[in-house]
Design goal:
The protein is mainly β. A hairpin with a 2-residue loop joins strand 19 (about 285-290) and strand 20 (about 295-300). The termini are far apart. This is BBSome complex member BBS1.
Length: about 575
Amino acid sequence: HVCLLLKSSACGDGGKWLDAHYDPVAGLYTFSSCVDLADLSGDGESRLVAGDLGCGASAMKLKVYRGTALMSESALLDLPSGLVAFFMDLHQPRIPAVAVASGPCIYVYKNLRPYFKFTLPGLEVNALEQDVWQQVREGQIDQLTLKEMLEGIRRKADVPLSVRSLHFLSLETNEMDQFIQLHKQQPIRRQTVITVIGTLKKSTADEDGVSCLVIGTESCDVYVLDPEAFIILSKMSLPSVPTLMDVTGQFDVEFRITVACRNGNIYILRRESDKPKYCIELSSHPVGLVRVAKNVVVGCTDESLQGFTQKGKKLWRTLVPAPITTMASMDLPTRGFQAVLVGLANCEVHLYRDKNLLSSIKTPDAVTSVCFGRYGREDGALIMTTRGGGLMVKILKRTATFDERDSAPGPPPAQSVRLNVPKKTKLYVDQTLRERENGTAMHRAFQMDLSRMRLAAAKAYVKALESSMAPVSSSAAEPLKVNAVVQGLGPSFKLTLNIQNTAAARPVLNLAVSFLYDEKLYRVRTPYLRVPLLVPGLVYPLQTFVECTSDKGVSDIIKVFVLREGRSAPLLTAHINMPVSEGLPLA
């Protein structure tokens, strides 16, 4: 087999990947839905099967790569919308077939040769539309009348017009007659097209078990096809056109089909119902859908990656640095490792496990398709195609390990660790029973004690206001705060008053401080002090000296009044408890 040229890749991923092959001019233009890996020869080597879109209107091909070389290619009649490899029978050797969805048909290839063509059943044709074309066939109406009648039918009818009528309405007037002469004798058909395709195991979950084809159509239907007779086993309806799909389970046992639709919602179909079982409403349209274990990971156009349960419960959400171009699952059964590969428009491919970024790969061009699996004889091969038609192959090192690191802000991982709660003791159980039996009485006692405490606090506050013992102004117009510091052993004391304006932004001016004291015991050197302008938030110290004139060894209270000049009513009153003088009184 063809050998791959390997070299270590050190592009922001810690050297976890080996660069096996890169061909920037491979000319392979495709998406993740049109790429698959399968052992098409039964020799144990997996090939890359891709539906090449070509230039958009021509050169559509089914290409098969082996190693680094193009093994074979077959022409396709229409643009492929999806491609899957599946086992359609139990014949030996076990070689899978390839199904290519293109337009309204599925082309099945076996041994890389055309094997079977399945065409979707036709849709109901509008009866009024048939009558109008019948009149054209009989020459009863002209082309302008035909156009007017078809436009009226399109506006009012429940059944959409056929492709022929829609094409006719888009023509210019000089082209209508030629179109009518060419098509008027042909019967009218209304055909839908396939938008998405997948596989569903029929009865066993074995890797080489027989699989059914699951297809979604433009007519908002999902069909399950028998792999041998290609008859419709089941039909389910959706509210909108399916664009992305993931299938799990077995058809004969239980299955679950997760479908992202064009209306921006995700629907979950189950075996027992032909209508969606659950609905997930997204804030923006989905561009990628991948199942990891029992959860669904969705990439959206708002540059976010979101995780949901099978029933639609949102688990997490994380942002990505650029718009998402493609997504695929990364499954390593030998290591029990599952993650999601996300291709971004900034030429990077990120590997996520839940919302944790595990690895980042730089690419020369924006990636349009990603596929991970067994390629050749390597189990961990990552195959990517770029916007310019390049083909890139990387191989995961056998020694590579991925450390989960949570780059998103939020609670630490330790918060989710379950606490080791001790067992319930007999005392705890008895106390719980007591609280249950006497809950009402205990609550009343608590409320009574709380009310008494509030009453005592209110009485103390009123008493402080009435006796002017509060060092904080009770007036909202002049918010002031005062505290006093007495220094010295006597008979001379230094008294410092710290005054603060507690207003938010308004200064206070024209204030003064006066002292009231027993003149038989004390003499204040400056009994009247002028207060400077008080800037909000700053503390202004005012100092004076107090001299003790008594030799009886007693002390008293000195009252401090803060008032506005020219007014007798104080704004704030404080009491200073003077210490006992330890020296002889001054003469």
